[in-house]
Amino acid sequence: MTDNWKLSRRSLLQGTAMGIGLVAAPSILGAQSPTKISFGHGAAPGNPRTIAAEKFAEIVKAKSGGAIEVTVAGSAQLGDDVAMLTSLRTGVLGISANSQGPASAVVPELAAFGLPFLFADASSAIKIVGGKLGDQLKPKFDAVGLVPLGFWDNGIRHITNSKRAINSPEDLKGLKIRTPADPATIDIFQALGAGTAQIAFSELYIALQQGVVDGQENPLTNIASAKLFEVNKYISMSAHKWESTPVLMSKAVWSRLDKKGQDIVMAAAAEAGSLQVKLSEDANAKLVNDFKANANVAVNSVDRDAFRKATASVFDKWQEKPFGAFVKDLRASVGA
Q1: Averaged pLDDT, 76-83
Q2: At the topology level of CATH, where does 158-241+294-334 sit?
Q3: What is the largest CA-CA distance in the chain?
Q4: What is the pLDDT of residues 257-266, one digit of tens each?
């Protein structure tokens, strides 16, 4: 959702118009008229992220007795993820259910959540990154004008290609795999012996169709919604990495809420997050069955131990980064 890296004037004006409902009163809950906070995200209608954002708004309104109203704008109406991060940091936008890649540009440690084979499923991932490990990042977010409300699920990723089933790392050799411009993902596939190419997601279907690349990696929801299975027959359930959806709030907007308002917002994010993870897991389970029932698609499991061993060097490389201590703590938390 983050191929356009510039904040357009239109997006800025939209963000301002929908805005944060600035008020002069020191206590939001004591204001005469409802305080409006904008919540931007890039997901389409019906997506678990969209449903959870709307649930968040409902919870906040109910628990604040109508004193706080959250206006949700999805489908990148307020700009792409990078643009929304800028709007958060300037106080133009109130909240964003963002993406791990763009957010790691301001808090680099976030990219480590996408290291190989850390998490088997979203629930276990959320439990770890939303605990003490995630608490380590709060000062980092604070320094760039952001308040983390929690982490939602952005999917366990799997490999598809047009040539053959991928059972072991050796099966990737000689294949060119499209990856996003994400350092962890690129490192993973290079360690597995595949060639990599960075192509915009919007151009991926045609690139696969024309053979510019042989395969790609994405959550099942993206594989289904973009119909990538039409041009990539083989879906290998590698579950090679997980990515988070950081739910971030503008520090400027957060500071205008009193303690009660802050508690309401934080609790609503947790409750909506539980819903989002459940919806994502249900959708993934259904998609696995749908793909297996599709005669034109071949679904297979992989030798995860072999893949894990083949990508062990990625951890060594990342532990040499400036945030290497955080990578070590992350590995210890999951027993990797």
Answers
A1: 92
A2: D-Maltodextrin-Binding Protein; domain 2 (3.40.190)
A3: 65
A4: 999 999 999 9
